[in-house]
Specification:
two-stranded antiparallel ribbon, 18% strand, globular, 3-stranded antiparallel β-sheet, 42% helix, Arc Repressor Mutant, subunit A, alpha+beta
Length: 147
C-alpha cells in the first residue's frame, strides 16, 4: 500500500483504554493511517495485515471482528463486477478523539516553560564543559575528574 507515512500517533484515550488489547490498539492506528477517503476507507486485506503484523490471517479476522463488535471500527463490503472489496474505517467517535488529541498535541507543543527554554540554550563545547546563556555565565565541568 502506498501512503505518506510519517509514523504513528496513539491518542491517550486509545492507549490507556482497558477495553482494548495491545494488538487491537495497533490495528486501530494502522487502519486509521491506511484510510483512503477517496476510495471509501482502508481497503487492505487480511493478507496485508497478516504480513505486516506477523500474525495469521485468522487472527487478523478475529481482531477485526472484535473491533467491529466493540464499535471501534466499521466494516463495509462493496460488491463489484470483479468480486468484492472490504473497507474498514475508524468509528466516528474515535476519529473525534484522534482529531482532538492531534489538535491538543499541536497546541501544547508550542507552549514552552522557562526551564525548558533555558535547557534549549545549552552550548556543548568539545572539552566536555557546558555553559548556559544567562546574565551570569556559569561553567559546569561535565567530567569533574579532568581539570
Amino acid at each position: 500500500m502506498n501512503r505518506a507515512f510519517k509514523g504513528i500517533w496513539i491518542p491517550k484515550e486509545i492507549w490507556l483504554s482497558k477495553d482494548l488489547s495491545i494488538q487491537e490498539k495497533i490495528f486501530i492506528v494502522e487502519i486509521d493511517s491506511l484510510e483512503d477517503h477517496v476510495k471509501g476507507g482502508c481497503y487492505a486485506g487480511n493478507k496485508y495485515f497478516s504480513e505486516f503484523f506477523g500474525v495469521s490471517e485468522s487472527r487478523v479476522s478475529n481482531i477485526i471482528k472484535t473491533l467491529v463488535s466493540k464499535k471501534m471500527i466499521t466494516r463495509k463490503v462493496v460488491r463489484t463486477q470483479n468480486g468484492s472489496v472490504r473497507y474498514l474505517n475508524v468509528s466516528h467517535y474515535l476519529k473525534t478523539v484522534i482529531a482532538h488529541s492531534h489538535n491538543l498535541a499541536v497546541r501544547t507543543s508550542h507552549i514552552q516553560d522557562s526551564q525548558s527554554a533555558e535547557s534549549d540554550n545549552i552550548i556543548i563545547h568539545s572539552n566536555n564543559t557546558f555553559s548556559f546563556k544567562k546574565k551570569k555565565s556559569k561553567i559546569i565541568n561535565a567530567n569533574p575528574r579532568k581539570k
